[in-house]
User: What shape does this take?
Amino acid sequence: MRPLSTLLLLVVCAWGAPGAAAPTDPGPLDLSSLSETARREVMQAMGEEFCGCGAPHTLAACVQGHAGCRHSRREVQLAAILAERGATAAELGVALARYNLSFQQPRAKLPVDAKMCQGDARAPVTLVEYADFECPICGATRPILEKFAQERSGQVRLCYLPFPLAQHPNSMPAGQVALFARDHGKFWAVHDGLFENQTRLSPDVIREVVVKAGLSADAWAKALAKEEYRAELERFRDSGVAAGVQGTPTLYMNGRKVDFLPQAALLQLTLEDELDYQSHRGSWAVDGAK
Assistant: This one.
């Protein structure tokens, strides 16, 4: 389980010119819903950070003068959400730098299994979640991710990958029973049942979930006794570690690590950025392009 941080995680050198005078005009973006403090921090960051599309001027100048740079507008919207949660201008600079860097880094190759995915395999974006069935944040995240993917079924496929945490006593059997259910065509029924009962998981409750899904309790007991799925489950966890997972839930969008806790507005912004980045073959729109 990861800490309840509202900011992006890794500290990197921020772009721009720290100490620059804060602009006063947010251009076409409406920041009126922000508190006075949050708006001040966003405006300061806009005056210190460079244009997201690569031109040698500030983020503020880009938003005000270049309608073609949609990425910069999304950066400001992202900053507004984080500022409303208490981020300072300096922290916003770090967050935006980390966010932009995530698009440029090599994409992780994840062991996605079609039987543990929802949505069209032809969707341009695959959203992968590494999660633990006893992680309370994963439980809270689940409906957000599922609604997000379902409402964007032509754009997003949602895939689950297990990442059992050692501190949770039922994480290994829960992860194994999910793989057992996958092989019997009942992955999502068991997945949902485990999350719905995550506060009371035990061997008996896992058995109840198996039976309710229409699977054989005896067959599950034999598979568990033989540890038929343990090695595979550990390989899934190892794949997460190799990809940079440090806690759950951790999300990847087309192999790009998404370093913020899921929220519909944030997911929508990074989805639009991902699609934009793809459409320009691994870069942002040329600054000022129509």
About this structure: The first strand starts at residue 117 and ends at 118. The longest helix spans residues 89-104. Residues 7-106+263-290 form one domain.
